[in-house]
Amino acid sequence: MTNNGTQPAFAADDTSFEELSFAELFEQENNNTVINVGEVAMGTVVGLSNDAALIDVGDKAESYISLSEFRHEDPDREIKIGDQFEVFIEKRKDEGGLLLSREKAIAIKVWEQIAKIQEEDGTIEGRIENRVKGGMSVDIGVPAFLPYSQIDLRPVKDLDGLIGETFEFKILKFNRKRNNVVISRRAILESQRSALREQMRTSLEEGQIIRGAITNITDYGLFIDLGGMDGLCHITDLSWGRVSHPSKLYNVGEEIEVKILKYDKNSDRVSLGVKQLKSDPWERVPEQYAPGSRVKGKVVSITDYGVFVELEEGVEGLVHISEMSWSKKPRHPSKIVGVGEEIEVQVLKVEAETKRISLGMKQLQPNPWDVVEESYPVGSVIEGKIKNITDFGIFIGIEEGIDGLIHVSDLSWTERIKHPSEKYAKGETIQAVVLKIDKENERFSLGVKQLEPDPWQAAASNYPIGSTVEGTITNVTDFGVFVQLEEGIEGLVHVSEISKDKVKTPVGMFNVNDTLKAMVINVSADDRKIGLSVKALQEKEENNGAIPEEYLQSSPSEGPSTIGDLLKAAAGEDLNK
């Protein structure tokens, strides 16, 4: 009979009671004993069907146990006649026969084993089945609960990866009535780690090279499990070069080789280093990076004052912004290069003691000032755009790194220009004459007025002494009257040359914009002065056009002939009072 009261159909090749000999039946009859309900008894497989096994427990009746109960225990085991198993006697059926259970027999045995293991502080093997609330379910013969905190020494990120794995566990507590068992794997690992720590305390030495697994990565370094204790490798000891974050170089779980830098036996603190496995690259920098040599490197950082270039791991140099371009007003470094870009540079200076290397980029390009004199000889005419306008002049872009200055005094021969912006605008293209090139001080002087002849150079021939001129009065002062003869050319009628009669001041006698005739009495193109006389013109007319003798032999007037001279003269008189 089966557990549900139905009779299984045995296969043709299965052994049945009809096939047993009389002697065997007699023997079995003699061995029959009474089995008590609630006990665990040894049973023998005496028959098999497709889904059940006929078990003889020595009682007067055999019973069936589903094969699934055996397969749950060991899916790969093949049940054969004659196999023996412990089974639990659940009850006697009313219709006769016993209700047996292999699973409950195993459970009873497991509970006894659990109690013994806990008492002896032993371990039990279990297979992690699945995730449950607060932890994992583990099959140790009966379902057991493994809390998250007891899985490992550290939090496990991939819990699903543990499903199906078999481990040894400690029994933390159990309650047989409630079928409740709490187990721990961490307790075993802690015990093993404690033993390894004691072993490491006697063997760990500073300077020792050891392998370990990365257990945690932080902003400031790596925590590494050395097998019995953890050590810290600070970010500054990871590489001789620049490290933005340890996670850029390593991953949790990765095994790496490290060097013991310091070991404090009292606190079990271990300081580790990776870069110390290699020699300091700065020890060979003076030989490898001699000043003047050209090298390639990668831009690792950009600042307002320049860029840092990694020449090799642990060796960086600075290209100052002033060494990036020949231009006096270089662009921001980020406009020239980018982080991660490989560039060629020239070594300018090496300070191995302070671990500093000065690099240059512009040195790989010809200095425009080396050829500027050949390209722009003095007297040649150039054309360029106005880059900047100041109160003292205009800056013209000549080529990359070179600007020329047109001083306000070189804008016009004749016009009085208070500010260059009165006549010119930024971005405007103009022509100018090269006046002077100072290569040492990197100065390029230009002039606009030099594109035309200086009108004062023709003043001596245009205004000979004794000639009569007529012009417009531009200013009347106590010292004299200024008369414009042509654009940019003014003459001065000194107060002493206004009349034969003594004149204290011409103010009130003449008005600005009035026309005045006078005779030229002296000319100085170099000093840009023309002396005029109304008094001499009157004498000339009285003498029938003859120039007075005194003016023929006269020297240039000692009086001021420009407004500037007039102001200087006025300031001098004030000082003499």
Q: Would you identify the regions where 5 or more consecutive residues have pLDDT less than 50?
A: 1-20, 555-577
Residue-averaged pLDDT, rounded?
82
> Order of strands across the widest beta sheet?
3-2-1-4-5
Instruction: Report the sheet with the most strands, covering strand number, pairing sense and barrel closure.
Output: 5 strands, antiparallel
Derived from helix and strand composition plus strand pairing, the structural class reads alpha+beta
Proportion of residues in β-strands: 35-45%
Which radius of gyration do the C-alpha atoms yield? 56 Å
Work out the helicity level: 10-25%
Helix count equals: 10
Describe the structure.
With 577 residues, the chain is of the alpha+beta class. Helices cover 17% and strands 37% of the residues. The chain has helices at 22-31, 67-73, 102-120, 186-203, 285-288, 368-375, 459-462, 534-542, 549-552, 563-576; strands at 40-48, 52-56, 63-66, 84-92, 98-101, 123-132, 135-139, 143-147, 166-175, 180-184, 209-218, 221-225, 230-234, 255-264, 269-273, 294-303, 306-312, 315-320, 342-351, 356-360, 381-390, 393-399, 402-407, 429-438, 443-447, 468-476, 480-486, 489-494, 515-524, 529-533. The chain has a five-stranded antiparallel beta sheet with strand order 3-2-1-4-5. A five-stranded antiparallel beta sheet has the order 8-7-6-9-10. Strands 11-12-13-15-14 form a five-stranded mixed barrel. Strand 2 and strand 3 form a beta hairpin.
